[in-house]
């Protein structure tokens, strides 16, 4: 989707790299955090609550983004 809303491939590539980079970091860290929570509490309940909280946070963040705002937000990288 990012590729369709930005003027140049360079800007679209920068946005896509940022989105994927942050997503991969979150995906890599969550299992370790869940394991630590499981070990310290003896239950997966806190880990599941963490996942639900993260999901709700991502839904809120996603609802705040607008494809129309991508071009303006990426202007500094247009050089």
Structure description:
α2 (9-41) packs antiparallel against α3. The chain is mainly α and 79 residues long. The protein has helices at residues 2-5, 9-41, 45-64, 67-73. The relative contact order is 0.16. It is 81% helix and 0% strand. It is built from four helices and no strands. The longest helix has 33 residues, at 9-41.
Based on Cα principal axes, name the global outline.
elongated
Structural class: mainly alpha
Helix content: over 70%
CA radius of gyration: 17 Å
Strand share of the residues?
Answer: under 5%
Contiguous helical run count: 4
Average pLDDT level = 82
Give a count of the beta strands, DSSP E runs of length 2 or more: 0
End-to-end C-alpha gap: 22 Å
- Written as H for each helix and E for each strand, in order along the chain, the element string is HHHH
Largest sheet: none
Low-confidence stretches: none
Which properties best describe this structure?
79 residues; 4 helices; mainly alpha
Q: What topology does this entry show?
A:
Elements: H1 2-5, H2 9-41, H3 45-64, H4 67-73
Helix pairs in contact: 2-3
Quick recap of the structure?
It contains 4 helices and no strands. The chain is an all-alpha fold.
């Amino acid at each position: 989707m990012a590729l369709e809303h930005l003027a140049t491939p360079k800007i679209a590539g920068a946005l896509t790299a940022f989105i994927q980079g942050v997503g991969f970091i979150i995906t890599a860290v969550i299992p370790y955090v869940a394991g630590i929570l499981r070990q310290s509490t003896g239950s997966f309940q806190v880990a599941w609550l963490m996942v639900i909280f993260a999901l709700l946070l991502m839904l809120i963040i996603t609802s705040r983004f607008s494809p129309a705002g991508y071009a303006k937000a990426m202007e500094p990288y247009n050089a």
